[in-house]
Automatic annotation (TrEMBL):
<keyword id="KW-0369">Histidine metabolism</keyword>
<comment type="pathway">
    <text>Amino-acid degradation; L-histidine degradation into L-glutamate; N-formimidoyl-L-glutamate from L-histidine: step 1/3.</text>
</comment>
<comment type="similarity">
    <text>Belongs to the PAL/histidase family.</text>
</comment>
<dbReference type="InterPro" id="IPR001106">
    <property type="entry name" value="Aromatic_Lyase"/>
</dbReference>
<dbReference type="InterPro" id="IPR005921">
    <property type="entry name" value="HutH"/>
</dbReference>
<dbReference type="InterPro" id="IPR022313">
    <property type="entry name" value="Phe/His_NH3-lyase_AS"/>
</dbReference>
<dbReference type="GO" id="GO:0004397">
    <property type="term" value="F:histidine ammonia-lyase activity"/>
</dbReference>
<dbReference type="InterPro" id="IPR024083">
    <property type="entry name" value="Fumarase/histidase_N"/>
</dbReference>
<dbReference type="InterPro" id="IPR008948">
    <property type="entry name" value="L-Aspartase-like"/>
</dbReference>
<protein>
    <recommendedName>
        <fullName>Histidine ammonia-lyase</fullName>
        <ecNumber>4.3.1.3</ecNumber>
    </recommendedName>
</protein>
<dbReference type="Pfam" id="PF00221">
    <property type="entry name" value="Lyase_aromatic"/>
</dbReference>
<keyword id="KW-0456">Lyase</keyword>
Amino acid sequence: MSDEKLILDGESLSLNTLAGWEAQPRPVTLSEGAKKRMQTSVDAVARVIDEERVSYGINTGFGALARERISRDKVVQLQYNLVRSHACGVGDALSPALTRRLMLLKANALAVGCSGIRAEVVETLLALLNADVLPMIPEQGSVGASGDLAPLAHLALALIGEGEALHDGEVLEGRDVLAAVDREPVVLQAKEGLALLNGTQLSATLAIDGLFRLEQLWRASIAAGALSVEALAGSYSPFDARVHQVRRMPGQIRAAEGLRAWLTESEIRENHRDCTRVQDPYALRCMPQVLGAVRDTLDHARNMLEHELNGVSDNPLIFDDEIISGGNFHAEPIAMISDFLAIAGAEMGSISERRTDCLVRGVNPALPLFLTEEAGVESGFMIAHVTAAALASENKTLAHPASVDSISTSAGQEDHVSMAPWAGLKLHRLCDNLARILAVELMAASRGVELQAPLKTTAELQQLLSWIRDTVPAHKGDRRLDGDIEALAEALREPLPAV
């Protein structure tokens, strides 16, 4: 871990900074300005209690119990009861990477200073993060309104010495979690339990994960599409810059630029320049339009999630001496972004599967059916394509928007919810499927190019072929391909050769 610190001020965190910190972790701390703002909000909470003003979440119950007034001597007990009663998360624990991201996002949101929580509580959270003592946070149990209450309650449990955490592969429990960083359990004060539980950090964590993965897979889609163009002896004309300039779609222009970067001087292209085929199937010809729409979707999602990074999503919020109850905990903006990303990812997989279909069914008459060595005796890529088709179909179901669903909770008080966590969780599975679909296409397309030897593809695609062959061997007769698909899908988590 680098000695240089990442300083959280609730204002300046960016997605690029987040990605850089995740790639090369460094200690995280609060800015002095954040500490001062946080203390100002804590003082405002104290005045509410001293003056016996009624304020939601400070001296009232929660949700449908908001009308219940809490006596001064039970205000602290209220916070502990809140954390304990809301720890109802179920399912698998978040991965370590996602847990770290969630912890960072939670700390940065509290650093804005509108939440009525002491700096020392957040510093305890950061002490766990910096030592890689990671609270075990279940994936399921949040509907994405009133915040991600149940999952975040498990984070809060770890801070008060009643939860579980993972450290160096060992599960720590209770006070041992904080003992691992030489800290005593946090003693909650008024409003602090609610500040920890209220917020959309799980929803945001999952949406950001989908964005990061799809940005990488978009670049892989451009590369795979270019390799399929070569394998299928496709035309370069649909990628001409003039075609896309007059459509004026920024993502489409960028997608065409990406394809042209791979499709330069090619012996394969020269060999079929005068062929009789007039037009290619849409899966080739319309790649700039489809992948361009995906690019615009990714850019929109990035813009929205940049805002969310430094946003405050708990309730009530403290502004000087005024405490306002609102609805920033509603994760609808994130739910819609996750759903939009899922649609984009499903479309990348759908058009990739169509290109693989073209590769195995003889669209290029120079290629044998299913890319076999000996048709009939061998099946070649027949069932690899079936796998891609199965995953593409599954993704169509996963792309059904979660945000159009709502289910009333809390005795009707929380009567419209976002379902943002589910939108993010299914997006994660969709990305796994997409990586495998692209892996199948890359394997089939590389086989298609190699079958046209001694003709060579572009220098750029030759580098891509070398990268593929560093991961999976060339196809020489039937063999099981499951391991190759998984290996190449995993390799797509890292950048492809630069062009």
